[in-house]
Every structure is written in C-alpha cells, then in structure tokens.
Amino acid sequence: MTTWLIANLAPIMFGSLLLFLLTGFPVAFALASAGMVFGWIAVELAIVPAAFFNALPLRLYGIMANDVLLAIPFFTLMGLILERSRMAEDLLETIGQVFGRMRGGLAIAVVLVGAMLAATTGVVAASVISMGLISLPIMLRYGYNRPLASGVIMASGTLAQIIPPSIVLIVIADQLGQSVGDMYKASFIPAFALVGIYLVAMLVLALVRPKWLPALPPEALTFHESNGNTGHRSLGVLAALSVFVGSQVFANYDKIKPMFGGEAGLKAPTDEKVVMMLMMSIFFAWLVAVIDKFAKTGLLSRLAQQVTFVLIPPLLLVFLVLGTIFLGIATPTEGGAMGAAGAILMAMLRRRLPMKLLAQAVDSSARLSIFVLFVLIGSTIFALTFQAIDGPTWVKALFAALPGGQIGFLLFVNALIFLLGCFLDFFEIAFILLPLLLPVLIEMDINLIWFGVMMAMNLQTSFLTPPFGFALFYLRSVAPKTDYVDRVTAAKIPALKTGDIYKGAVAFVVLQVIMVAAIMYKPEIVTYGLGEVKVLDVKGVNMNITPQEETEEAPPSFGAPTPPAK
Q: Which of 75, 153, 328, 516 has the fewest CB atoms found within 10 Å of its own CB?
C-alpha cells in the first residue's frame, strides 16, 4: 500500500485539489492547504526531507518582491477611475451618433468603444457594466435583437482580456517567465483581428437580418448642423488626414524610434525618460490647441469637434501607456503608473473625481491585488510540494501519452482551458495550470509567447461561457429584470431574459474559438508582432583561440611563483 501511495502521490494530490475546488473552497486556501498537507505526507513517507520546506519563505518573499506584479494594481486603478469618471458614457454617446444612421451602427459603436475601453481600462467588469447601463436601453428602445444586443455588449467588454494593457497577459507572462512588453506586442495583431471579426459579423448580419440591427431614427440623433448637413463630411476629412499622418509615422517608424530612446529606452536614465514623456505630452497639448483653433473658425462640424475632443484624451492615455512600452521608454509597471496618474489627472480636469470616488477605486484596486497575491502564494505552496514529489514527471508522461504529438497536445490543452473556463476564474486557471504545463512546453520546444497569447485568447471565452461566465453576471446585474416604460418613447419594454443573455454569449464564443484556431494554425499572427527574432548561429561562431606564448611579458598565473626581476 505504501509503495503504491508513493508511486501515485502526484495524481492523488492533483485530484484532491480538484475535489477542493468543486466543493467551493476558496482557491487560494485550497492550493495552500493541498500543498501543506501533501508536503507533510511526503515527509512522513520519506519521499522528501523535512528541510525542503525551508525553501518556502524565500519563494513567498520572491512573489512580494516581484516588480512585474505591481502593474496589476496600477492598471486596475486606471480602469476604475476612467469608468467612474463616465468616459465610457461620453465615448458611446459620441461614436453612436457617428454610426447611428446606418443599420447595425449602434452595435459597431459598442464594439469600437469596447476596444477603446479595453486599451485604457483593462477591466472587464467596468467595460461590461458601463456599456450595459448606457447602450442596452437604447438597443432595446429601437428594436435590436435581444440576444444580439446582449452578446455584442458582453463580447466587447471582454476585449479587455486580450487587448493591452491586459491584466491577463501580465499574469501569463509572469507565470511563463517571459517579458510583459513582448507579450503585449505579440497580442496586438490577434486582438484587433478579433475586433475586426466582430465588426464584419455585425456588417454581415445587418445585410442578412436587417430587422435585427435597425438604424437610429432621426430624432435620436442629437448633433445637427445649422446648414442641415450631418457633419460627416468634415469628420471624414479629419479622419482621412489622421490616417495619412498615422501611415507616415508607421512607414518611418525606424527613423522615429531612435528619437524616443529606441531599443536602449529601458536603459535610459530616469530624467531622460521624464523629458521624453514631457515632450510627447507637449506635442499632444499642441495638437489639441490646433484642433481647437480650427473648430473656432467653423472649419470643423459639431460632430467632428465632439468626436475629436472625446477621443483625444483616451488616445493620449493609450499612447502614454502602450506607446511608451512599445517604444522602449517605460517598463509595463512604469507604464501602468503613468496610466493611473493620467487617469486621475483626466478625471480631475473634468471635475469628475470626488474623494469618495477615488477612495472606492483605491479600495477596489487593493482588493483585487490582494486576491491575486493570495492565489499566487497558494499556487506557489502547491507547486513546491508538487515538484518535490516529482509531479512534473507525471505531467510529462500524461501528455506524452496523447496522440498527435504537438498538435494533439495543443488541442487537448485548449479544450481543457475552455472547459475549466466554464467554472473557474482566469486567475485560478493561469496560476494552477501554467506551472504544470511549463516543463512540457519547454520540452516540446513550443514558443512561450505564442502559447501565452493563444491561452489569453482562450481564457477570454471564460467570461462568456455559460453557466458561470462572469460577463453574463455583470450584464444580468444591470439588465432590466422586469417590464418597464421607456422614458423617451413611453413604450413598454419587456424585461431581458437570462436565456437571451446566454444565447447572445454562445454566438460570440464561436467567433472567439475561430480566432483561437486561427492562432494555432497560423502562429505568424502572433509572432509577427515581435519583429525579427535574432537567432545565434552557433556553428558559425569562430572559436579560434591562440594560446599565449610564454614570454617574459606574460603575466604570472595565480599560485605560481613570481619570476625574479632582471
């Protein structure tokens, strides 16, 4: 019996952890208790010496000294400040007016605002709740298909999982031992490819099922010009000019990059970084002043003015965070700190930051950070014992038995992550599963950045998969539970059923699974964002070393007698 227990302690430990989780025991304490209990059993069975627990304090101290994890409270605070300062409300109202005249325009506006909120807030709950409160009543008012309205709001809110500065990418990069900046760069193309898939789906549905996505009536459009025009022509000229400038910047990126520090930006002194960021802030302030001057001359329509002054602050914040990270000026932690400071400053300038709001945002950020820290501490205790009882060997043997080699392994892991996402939070999946998979990934020579982005895209579905997807509960909490009378049309609007929310979620889960399959089939979607990867050609290295001649000028070797002076 003892021999069998020693041989199978690793699978028993993993099974016990799953049993703990199914009983509803808190994840952090389930991980820690499983690690401690089975560590004691391993000591009693003489599998490991009792001294192996001495490594635990050093590991826990290493977690608390990890600078990368500091980015989590910074980005969380930034998102909560922006959400409570009603930035989402301004964006949805403005972009909804731009696309409101076309069928499906409101759904397109929700997707675009969801992407912009994801690039500024990085918090799924804030995005889903904000758009649910603002856009869902308008969609129900003008006859949008109910499952579609629910699905597009939830799916757009979950874009915060994959679009930088995503907290999920920070956690995955930390667990895989990779650079957060590289993870951000690699996720950029697949993230906005997913946004493109959502937009194409809305446009196709507008053609196939026009009654599902009606255009807004003229009375719902609030921006009207004195000459009777819509203002879209002026906005189109401004958009074309912006695209031209952006394309020129992109085409001359290699020439511009050295001006901001280039590859050596992270190694630049702090004062140089501050000067670079001040120069960029001055440039954006000058740009706002120029646009304001044009607006006063009447060259810009009211719609163009509104779009400009609503979009510039969040775009400036995105550049301060992601631009400085991609250009090499700031680390992700420094970028998060700048983002939080910029969000507070933006809310103060709009006079939307009372002390009560700031206190709530700080309190919520602290709670989330403590939750992450405790789950990470629990997973570290579990991993220490699991490695001591030779658990990685059992995991490697388990996956080696899968048919199909690397493809079979990836299909199984993605299916496992998808199923776990129906019941567990993404933090718990990342902290439990990644340490177990890392040795297998290294042995199979799988690109860890590519795998991390694919896993993040897969984990995004965990917010939408019934029955326990968090986005479902976020929308359910703000959706109308009973029939109500609309304040604009005075019409009676039926309550939104939970079944409609589930139907809408399933449709967008299918689109996300298609994106995961595309990443698996075409790794270049991810690796292209990393640029050219330089590989050392070991065979081409010339190792010719000429032995030093024993001359009188040769320095004496250590331990040898010093030659007499002539």
A: 328
205 shares its domain with 345: yes
Is the same domain home to 328 and 403? no
Residue 80 makes CB contacts below 8 A (sequence gap 6+) with 121, 123, 126, 360, 361, 364, 365
Q: How many whole angstroms separate alpha carbon 279 and alpha carbon 286?
A: 11
- Cβ burial of 415 (10 Å; 0-12, 13-18, 19+) is exposed
Q: Cα(311)–Cα(306) distance, rounded to whole angstroms? A: 8
Two structure tokens written together for 145: 């298909």
Same domain, 271 and 165: yes
Domain range spanning residue 384?
2-65+374-451
Highest-confidence segment of 37-46, 71-80, 192-201, 314-323: 192-201
* Residue 333 pLDDT > 60: yes
**Which residues face 484 on adjacent strands?**
493
Is the residue at 564 inside a domain?
A: no
User: Which tens digits make up the pLDDT trace of 218-238?
Assistant: 766 666 665 556 556 666 666
- A 10 A CB-CB count for 175 gives 21
**pLDDT tens track for 275-305:** 555 555 555 555 555 555 555 555 566 666 6
Same domain, 211 and 339: yes
DSSP 237-256: HHHHHHHHHHHHHHHTHHHH
Tokens of 392: 């990685």
